[in-house]
Amino acid sequence: MHNITRWSVSSTGGVLESLGYKEGYRVDVDIPEGTWAEALSFHDVLIFNTGHWWWAPSKFNPVKSPMLFFEKGLPVMPPIPPAVGLDMVLKHMTSFVERRMKPTAILFFRTQSPRHFEGGDWDQGGSCQRIHPLSPQEVGKLFSVDNNGTNVETRLVNQHLYKALDSSVFNVLDITRMSEFRADAHPSTAGGKKHDDCMHWCLPGVTDTWNDLFVAHLDNIQGRN
């Protein structure tokens, strides 16, 4: 969504070094990633989404490789957790898009695609061996924010998305709820990886329904206009 680069200790020192940070990932909350930033003035329909890594200690370990947020080229001080950084990124992103978009463009933000790891995360022996969709009770247990389970980031990120987009021109494309039931629709052991793939989706499948939902939303918006 925004510019992310590796960060490491500078030989000249700095405020982060003085706090004991040695390496991490620099996230510039006010600098959009160049690929999509250049597309805003060209496309008539734009669909945005964000990644799974806001709550991903296996990649952004809060001690060994934390996300370090920068604004206007300087570290945000005191250092902030990913949840606060996400809010800052979304604030800058929506403002930037609304300034640069075509006046007639239609904007969507797609909600999170759920993962279905059970028994641990992808690097902890987690698996997805289901052959039938989940029941409503099973969905509630697997994704409950109160339970703080392996797949909780889906709903946590969505909470931040809805808050940030509430007063924006974005249309929310909610694919999360319908997809939460489909624990049976991932490649699992057929993905050719050393671990179960419980994040990506088999094709054809769930993502085709996302496209149908998108087209229905788009037709509805264009019909109103």
UniProtKB/TrEMBL annotation:
<dbReference type="GO" id="GO:0016413">
    <property type="term" value="F:O-acetyltransferase activity"/>
</dbReference>
<comment type="similarity">
    <text>Belongs to the PC-esterase family. TBL subfamily.</text>
</comment>
<dbReference type="InterPro" id="IPR026057">
    <property type="entry name" value="TBL_C"/>
</dbReference>
<feature type="domain" description="Trichome birefringence-like C-terminal">
    <location>
        <begin position="22"/>
        <end position="216"/>
    </location>
</feature>
<dbReference type="Pfam" id="PF13839">
    <property type="entry name" value="PC-Esterase"/>
</dbReference>
<dbReference type="InterPro" id="IPR029962">
    <property type="entry name" value="TBL"/>
</dbReference>
<dbReference type="GO" id="GO:0005794">
    <property type="term" value="C:Golgi apparatus"/>
</dbReference>
<protein>
    <recommendedName>
        <fullName>Trichome birefringence-like C-terminal domain-containing protein</fullName>
    </recommendedName>
</protein>
